[in-house]
Specification:
two-stranded antiparallel ribbon; single chain; 8 strands; globular; alpha/beta; 6-stranded parallel sheet; 10 helices
Length: 221
């Protein structure tokens, strides 16, 4: 029996409750091309990674390279202006402390730019709970799988193995990344996806981070 002893946490929409900032930034990027704003319900039903595919679902076509660059720049400009006001998800701080107190390990992997992510995690005072904090390097129109491979490789020598790791995130892409490396996943409904779309991934779906951690503790093979 192999039990979980390591969690890889997602950041945006999981530990960081930033959906309001995401919606402001998303609708600002759409306004650049003259599109009407969308609702949170529509966002959660249609969101997908890589992000250009999300725009394709909304626009009926993939954005051109010029449109993508404009929307991506606009999104990040508005998002980071609003992200400072976002707080941690309910219970996140205590859950991180509790997992560490039990002698278990955790790390953080995000598709947010690394140079933006690290100071923000530090500002929330939780960086000491993680063996490692990694953000995205390279282009933004990417999925998490390759980044998770790099993240776990960097944890070689710490005792972390994929088969004893659970990734907790808010997107189907998180489940796909976990499967790619042979880890498990638990998906949380408080972020970017609706419950219906998360359930399509075929992994446990929960409504609170407390449930996510409890499920991570129970997962074994």
């Amino acid at each position: 029996m192999t039990t979980t002893n390591h969690i890889v946490w997602d950041w945006n929409g999981t530990l960081l409750h930033d959906i309001d900032a995401v919606m402001v930034a998303t609708n600002a990027s759409f306004a650049e091309l003259g599109f009407a704003p969308i609702t949170l319900e529509t966002y959660r039903e249609l969101y997908v990674v890589p992000v250009p595919k999300f725009y394709e679902r909304l626009m009926g076509r993939l954005p051109t390279e010029e449109e993508w660059l404009l929307m991506d720049e606009t999104f990040h400009r508005h998002y980071w202006a609003a992200a400072d006001g976002a707080g941690l998800a309910e219970g996140a701080r205590d859950l991180l402390a509790g997992w560490q107190r039990d002698g278990l390990t955790q790390s953080l992997l995000s598709l947010a730019p690394h140079e933006k992510l690290v100071p923000l995690v530090r500002a929330h005072g939780i960086d000491g709970h993680f063996l490692r904090v990694d953000g995205r390097t390279g282009p933004s129109h990417t999925s998490k799988a390759g980044h998770l491979v790099r993240h776990l490789r960097a944890l070689d020598g710490t005792g972390v193995t994929a088969d004893r790791t659970v990734l907790i995130g808010d997107a189907v892409d998180d489940a796909l990344a976990a499967a790619h490396v042979g880890a498990r996943a638990v998906l949380y409904t408080g972020g970017s996806h609706s419950r219906r779309s998360l359930e399509s991934a075929g992994v446990p779906v929960v409504d609170t981070l407390a449930e996510a951690v409890l499920t991570a503790r129970e997962l074994a093979e």
